[in-house]
Write a structure and sequence with these properties.
The chain is mainly alpha-helical. Helices cover 67% and strands 0% of the residues. The N and C termini lie far apart (27 Å).
């Protein structure tokens, strides 16, 4: 549950340019330990996905998983 709250916080902190490009803002982390956290790695991974996967967010979870498996 805590991770969902962090995810929502990251989404709300995004600027309009990030929202229009559907990218998440990656928080600044000072240590390598902090960069291995969910708060840092989740937006970094999301932003690295191709636009084929992230463009249409009105899909079911199964469709998203299929697209993700195609990429990886």
């Amino acid at each position: 549950m805590e991770q969902i709250a962090i995810w929502k916080k990251i989404l709300l902190q995004s600027t309009t340019s990030y929202v229009s490009a559907k990218l998440l803002e990656i928080p600044r982390m000072r240590t390598g330990f902090a960069q291995r956290s969910f708060t840092y790695s989740a937006p970094h991974i999301w932003n690295s996905l191709p636009h084929v996967i992230t463009d249409n967010l009105d899909v079911t979870a199964n469709t998203f998983k299929k697209k993700l498996k195609t990429f990886y």
